[in-house]
Amino acid sequence: MYHFCMALVQVDAVSKSYPRRAGLRTELRTVVEDVSFDILAGETLGLVGESGSGKTTVARMILGLVEPSSGSILIEGINIAQASRPQMKDLRRQMQPVFQDPYAALNPRMKVFDIITEPWAIHGIEALNTAHRYHNPKTLLRMRASELLREVGLDDSALGRHPHEFSGGQRQRINIARALALRPKLLILDEPVSALDVSVGAQIINLLRSLQHDHGLTYLFISHSMPLVRYLSTRIAVMEHGRLIEIGEAESLCANPREAYTQKLLAATPELPTGVA
């Protein structure tokens, strides 16, 4: 059990608007409006809402892929809009995404070895965070790639194969292994099981819970499924039409939802998938 005391991520009054054509005029379409929350080190914050509620836009702003129209986002106390290039490179090592579609997330022309070791190619072999002076680089990369595969329930026979040779659940395990390569503090999990069969998704959820326990990871878990969010999350934040309408401890929020929209989400998917335990 982890003790949550320090905010790893601070989202403060963040909004995001995009221009769009309306006849002869250009007007702004707001997709995220005045959203504020913290993610505490070691916890899982579940961000839940229907498609189009702004969840993924919030995630992309935290990752630095999209710039907020207003407000601020701090990672470990650093405002990402004001971070220097070296600071931003370090922050990107500390937070890694796992996206919804395991089929689209992997380059079909790359072998698994190259996929998993790509973060080290980008950030330098020093990012292995190990006593690499005892190994030549190629041996070390293979050793660490094999370790990562074992952590996600695959063996090193996968290293020489291409993504199309794997099932959807296995591909998502490879995605998770790649995300863990730099030993990040924060994983942003954007609908990581919605493209998978229910039973396979349950296995991935249990894997994520185990990895968090083993490595002290912090999660932002994005989903439209309230039962999955409740199972994995310490706290839950509910978004509707770009606004954060409710946030609280997972069990208490699900037992006594304040907002009608939260009640609707709970009623829409009342059961956990078989295999989540």
Characterization of this structure:
The protein folds into two domains: 168 residues, Rossmann fold (3-Layer(aba) Sandwich); 80 residues, no CATH class. 35% of the residues lie in helices and 26% in strands. The chain has a six-stranded mixed sheet with strand order 6-7-8-3-9-10, with helices on both faces. The radius of gyration is 19 Å and the shape is globular. The model has no long low-confidence stretch (mean pLDDT 89).
Q: Calculate Rg over CA atoms.
A: 19 Å
CATH architectural grouping of the largest domain: 3-Layer(aba) Sandwich
Gross morphology is globular
- Percent strand equals 25-35%
In total, how many beta strands? 10
Proportion of residues in helical segments: 25-40%
State the separation between the terminal residues, measured CA to CA: 17 Å
Quote the average pLDDT.
89
Annotation field: number of helices:
9
Strand order of the largest sheet: 6-7-8-3-9-10
Task: Could you tell me the CATH topology label of the largest domain.
Answer: Rossmann fold
Class inferred from helices and paired strands: alpha/beta
Major beta sheet summary: 6 strands, mixed
**Low-pLDDT ranges:** none
Domain module tally: 2
- The CATH class of the largest domain, by name, is Alpha Beta
Helix and strand succession?
EEEHEEHEHHHEHEHEEHH
**CATH superfamily descriptor of the largest domain:** P-loop containing nucleotide triphosphate hydrolases
